[in-house]
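Quick illustration for those who missed Monday's session on complexes.
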Amino acid sequence: MLKLYRNIDIALTLKKANKKSGRHIQEQDLSPLKNAAMIVSKNKIVWIGKEKTLSPQLFKKLDLPIKKIKEIDLGGHQIMPSFIESHTHSVFAGDRQNEFELRNQGVTYQQIAQQGGGIKSTVKQTRKASSSKLSESLQKRVQFFLDQGVSLLEIKSGYGLNLKTEMKMLEVIKSNKSINTVATFLGPHACPNDYKNYDDYMESVLNHMLPKLIQKGLIDRADVFLEKGYFSAEQVCKYFEYLSNEQIPLTSHVDQLTNSRAIKKLCHFNRLQSLDHLVCIDSSGIKTLAACDTTAVLLPVADFYLKMKYPPARKMLDAGVRVALATDFNPGSSPSQDLSFVGVLARLNMQMTLPEVLVAYTLNAAHAIGFGDRLGSLTEGKDAHFVVLDDDYDKLFYSVGYHPVKKVYFGRL
Ligand code: NIG
Ligand code: FE
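Prediction with N-(iminomethyl)-L-glutamic acid bound:
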């Protein structure tokens, strides 16, 4: 299929941001192209430039049959790369509004977890739920992301904590065909009650769960909750060694509630795609991250709901860390799917500039989940995943709940 998208007021291509691999972003790195057109063949961008430079010679040079082209008039709107949600827990049953009420009365997230609530209460409900119920609720959430211009959605398991329900969750993720998904295994999210301790449960993850789930092809990448009272750095390294041998990309929830001093150890794994949360990261962690290819995924809505401080985004950005943003959508710490809320918090409370937020939610989010070479900029050779905006791009991430997205275009990855 050959398509020509034309009559584009501005194409925000992110060409320079792409060249800089999403680091040290300045306004000019958004690389806006005025009065643009874009040629797409088999879902790949083969040409993007000024509409007035389109000519039969150009088609000849590109070796494209001009007669077969389908023309799509974008009505003088602005376009930009579609959004990428790189950290969500979108498959779950039930809700935790009661805990929200408790937290507002002064009970902490950790205290709720110690009393059997928190992650474990969602595990209880998710174990009971049928695949079709989970698929149905996931589809509604997927639609919510699609309406905001998301074309690729990362979704974690982690509310099963046993083989049967972890498998059920991953199958539900893989069976959703209305958006592109990345299925992240999060078996080590917490220790279920029927295990002596975290070591014991990790043994079962390694010896019992992972072999079966990998064999079934259900795991695109793997995550873990490294935190005081949850999994230790030693346990995480053992988990990462196993997964590295299986060539599975890695990520970790880390430095969310306390500082782990583990960033250096984790960055030794060259399949480490991202480290997420990083509220309590220290300067040595920032230095390590700036020097490796791992993306920092910051999740300010969780910090907002947990009344935490926010991660030192400005320090990370200035040090040259590649920073992405995501919702962390889940029923406990971050019960919101709203991308505009994430961006507004990043600008208000993390001193991120609008260009940094735009790159964080497109190119850098693509890097965070292993698609940096295919998505996140409107440049030749990349997949044509883009949004047509209903307003100027500088109105994005300004008004919470405002999503001026007319249409999202994307193909299968
Ligand atoms: O990213 N920190 C661990 N996991 C989730 C919370 C999950 C939950 O509370 O259900 C997070 O914040
Ligand atoms: Fe999370």
